[in-house]
Write a structure and sequence with these properties.
The complex is a heterodimer. Chain A is an alpha/beta fold. In chain A, strand 16 and strand 17 form a beta hairpin. The longest helix of chain A is centred in the middle third of the chain and has 16 residues. Chain B is about 75% helix and about 0% strand. Chain B has 18 helices and two strands. The chains are: A alpha/beta, B mainly alpha.
Amino acid sequence: MTTLDTQDEPILLEMRSITKEFPGVKALSNVSLRVKAGEIHAICGENGAGKSTLMKVLSGVYPHGSYTGDIVYMAETQQFKDIRASEAAGIVIIHQELALIPELSIMENIFLGNEPTKWGVIDWAEARKRSVELLARVGLREDPDTPIKEIGVGKQQLVEIAKALNKSVRLLILDEPTAALNESDSQHLLDLILGLKGKGITSIIISHKLNEIEQIADEITIIRDGKSIETLNVKRDGVDEDRIIKGMVGRTLESRFPDHEPKIGEVFFEVKDWTVGHPQIQDRLICKGSNFYVRRGEIVGFAGLMGAGRTELARSLFGHSYGRYIKGQVYKDGKPVNLRSVRAAIDAGLGYVTEDRKSLGLNLLDDIKTTTVAANLRAISKYTVVDDRKEFSVAEEYRKSLRTKTPSVEEGVAKLSGGNQQKVVLAKWMFTDPDLLILDEPTRGIDVGAKYEIYGIIQRLANQGKGVIVISSELPELLGLSDRIYTIFEGAITGVLDKNEASQESLMKLMTSARKTA
Amino acid sequence: MNALKKLFGGNTRQFGMIFALVALIVFFQIFTEGRTLTPGNVINLFNGNSYILILAIGMVLVIIAGHIDLSVGSVAAFVGVSVALAIRDWGIPWYMGVLFGLVLGAVIGAWQGFWTAYVGIPAFIVTLAGMLLFRGFNQFVGKSNTIPVPSDFQYLGSGYLPEIGPNTGFNNLTLLLGILAAAFVVIMSLRARATNKALGADVPELWVEVTKLVLICGAILYATYLFATGRPGTSFPIPGLILAVLVLIYGFIADKTVLGRHVYAVGGNRHAAELSGVQSKKVNFMVMLNMSVLAGLAGMIFVGRSTASGPFDGVGWELDAIAAVFIGGAAVTGGVGTVIGSIVGGLVMAVLNNGLQLLGVGADLTQIIKGLVLLAAVAFDVYNKIQGKRSITGLLMKNFQRNNDIKPDETTSTKEVISKEA
């Protein structure tokens, strides 16, 4: 079918009222997206808004039939049943986590799954010829035989694009392409995308870096809470960062938080000049001289976009369990403390609830009672022999006080819902009786009702005089819960706002830009 | 049913294995025309397999922690020959020889534990190297000769409980042991029941408990009867006694102590364990060390039984021990397994071996059958998991999906990236 569009450029892709439901959750509802041929179209939205889900629908990860709505691409309604089908149509998606094999060479990676053959044998001469051409097109000066692991992330990103070009791409989707890149690599990549546009390749770019979007995008579609809010034309509408942020966060704060009267005491936990290196990459820093403090009874929020270094900061503090410690000192009650191992951190009164419940927080083979006592076996054992009765009664006590929904504390944790699993993890750390509890995305993957309960638990802990650090991607959550909020951008703390001076706009500004004011 | 299941670790495969063991015994009892359950044969069976079962105790801990140990046969042989030489050449008494063997086992275990836990080399490689290394050491120090051990040392591998007290027609000590064991089982399960009841936990119905106890005690007393009525001079064998003590100790450690908890935690999810303050390196080190100590003990028992140490002692033991553990319900990926289950698994293999021998089946066919049994036991479990019925994998998959459902905006999983490539 032809389009009714009145603008100068023809429409390459139109997604019409796409609705995608998961049991209990409407991830996308009536989302529409129109991408004109030859433009760079940005999709903006908060974490969890539905951007990646929309791209998964488009690229066939969620096959036709698992969503409702139409995808019209090149004037035909498409029904992609898998990624291969969408790739055959010229839609290539480059994920944030690159799909390259580190041990193979650049050339082998470009042609992986798409090898040129002659009589059924790979034609390496042809492959080499073509990879030299492709590398020239993306502006990568490297020998095609260089193993992927020997080139930096920026260059790997270019190899991904070369790979896409080899598949005669028409619509290139880039999911957070510059998230892991430094300034100059990002700039090179953006220039390349602009260059591809000149050669007639349309791009959809998902990015949190609003300055970049402002720089290269022609149009911007904003998605919020699974709905497409608006599409802005950058030149015509004179869009700037503030305008995009307004669209991204423009939701009203519902009263989703229990009432809480903070009882804040004196500063008891202080971190000075905390600097940590990336675990693998030599000169990259994941924490750049961070300074912050926590007072007794205070809930301190940490805001930052994905990959900003929030989790890295927390884990490097918690027993140096991530990254290479370079310098910095932690003070508790005015005295320097050494947190060199997880055990030492627990003994010093720290607790850390991970954002990745399944792979870092729980042993899914265990039952509830074993999990509850796992971080503090000392308290329920005598001469290293575990007292089953104590274990059971401790677990039972937390089941009741946190209102964990389970038939018995002998139930396997793998059987519980996300919210109840999180309560078990909270119980585990509450049982270690920490002075400072760090909660990393405490409500991720949890439904609204359970969220409310978790907020209540967090507030109760603060009222007991404990310090609580909450790391979250959801700004409304941080605003509703925290007494004070630090913002992090690219591993550095860029600001701190009091509860009453913080707003989604002010936070987002600090989260997306380098330090403006000290 | 649930009660029985609970007793044996609550694992479908282990539960099935108990029945398989009973069925095998009944089958061979019928087809060997009663030659299976005779005192002589049962005593033989225990004597000939206790060292493998001892290895299985250590091996299950290694496997729960997520490793494997291929060197146990070679370590056993090296410790065996060293102890035999020490007794012959240095003239030390047998008990000093045993102590020397255990210390040597610990030193070897520390070596393997160091490479596995602290250097981070996979245990498969470390112990494959150890398999070659200690086999070589065995033949080097023993000059590939057979070295006899004195008779008091032989008692360790082929001795029996002595005859004491009045002549009752039974071996009195064996009888006493059997009655104590039955009483122990009854008291322990009644106590556990009382505790659970007091705490308000699930308690199986009374008749289930009673039936269970009657069955178990019946089995224990019948075994006692068999051991106590052997030909004169035989009774419950010393290696069996050592095995029983070890099962009690290690069962307790695995189930009730902080160290045991940590072994399961490291095997189940190493990262989660570390973030809960478990020192996983120390746990891995201890597990590897312990395995070699037990391998040393098994080696000494075997030398005692065969009256001499030889250059080919312990060949293939590692595979028997590993098979026992997997038949007994352990998971290749770690985190799952029980000591008692591994013993049952080992007994299945032992009964199979013994029964086929009694039937006059050749060694070739016996190996084929044992191979198929191992495959079938694990395949049964995998099949159960695919069906998604009360299996851990099934639960994980289910949860994974639910997880996806709740956070639809999660970044792409590796699976999708792979499927894109494929």
